[in-house]
Design brief:
Blueprint: H1 2-7, E1 13-23, E2 26-35, E3 39-43, E4 54-59, E5 62-63, E6 67-73, E7 76-81, H2 87-110
Length: 111
């Protein structure tokens, strides 16, 4: 996995967001830990994915390009997209998530 870290061409944006996807012709719910133009890191139940499997995710209404699981460590897995997400889409998803977190934080303080 360290080799992957050094070959990344785009910065990853932290999301920590539960999303729906499809793998093995079934619906899948995973947490997208972070995302970049070329892929993302997800978290699911132990054993939920194997290297080489295809997956597609829908993050806040945005479908990612078809992805392939390139590594699995316990309940985390790395996805490499076959195409690239436009940088503006990645920024939009990140900014939207930051706004959601900010709104949740304000609601908690008011309670």
């Amino acid at each position: 996995m360290e080799g992957i870290e050094s070959t990344r061409s785009a910065d990853r944006k932290r999301l920590d967001l539960l999303v729906q996807g499809r793998m093995r012709s079934r619906t899948l719910y995973v947490e997208v830990v972070d995302v970049s133009e070329g892929g993302c890191k997800i978290k699911g139940r132990h054993g939920f994915a194997e290297e080489g499997e295809n997956v597609i995710l829908k993050i806040d209404g945005v479908r990612t390009p078809l992805g392939k699981i390139v590594w699995v460590e316990g309940e985390h897995a790395g996805i490499a997209f076959e195409g690239k997400m436009h940088p503006a889409i990645v920024d939009h998803l990140y900014n939207q998530r930051m706004e959601q977190k900010k709104s949740l934080g304000k609601g908690e303080k008011a309670a």
